[in-house]
Amino acid sequence: MAYDEGLAQRLREILDDRPEVTEKKMFGGLAFLWAGHMCCGVLGESLMARVGPQRYAEALGRPHTRTMDFTGKSMKGMVFVDPPGLADDADLEAWVGLCETFVASLPPKERL
Fold it and tell me: Rounded CA gap, 107 and 58, in Å?
């Protein structure tokens, strides 16, 4: 599945000053990893947002969100945000902030 390059570029611009963020093609889209942890990404035209289990229900209550279930099974702690929910840069930045907050709470990834 292809991903929206425009949305990917907007994410790059938000995450540009964070040296611990890398990009990786995964899930048929593009993921942004923070210190090795999946943080957010793009699949099709939608944002993949890893908000964590505590903020999951709250995130799904926001407009233009839906369960991330492209494998047929719901991925708890992750939601899709559709384009209308990302129209303003401030909206996208708020979603990235939620993702960063959750990922920052995770233990460091072990290096192999």
Answer: 23
pLDDT for the residue numbered 90: 97
For the purposes of burial, counting CB atoms within 10 Å of the CB of 60, is it exposed (0-12), middle (13-18) or buried (19 or more)?
Answer: middle
pLDDT tens string 34-88? 999 999 999 999 999 999 999 999 999 999 999 998 777 888 899 999 999 999 9
Q: What is the pTM of this model?
A: 0.92
The CA angle 45-92-16, to the nearest 5 degrees, is 100
Number of domains making up the chain: 1
Coil/strand/helix, residue 100:
helix
Distance separating alpha carbons of residues 79 and 81, to the nearest angstrom: 6
Q: Is residue 84 part of a domain?
A: no
Give the residue numbers spanning the domain of 70.
5-76+100-104
Is residue 18, in this structure, part of any structural domain at all? yes
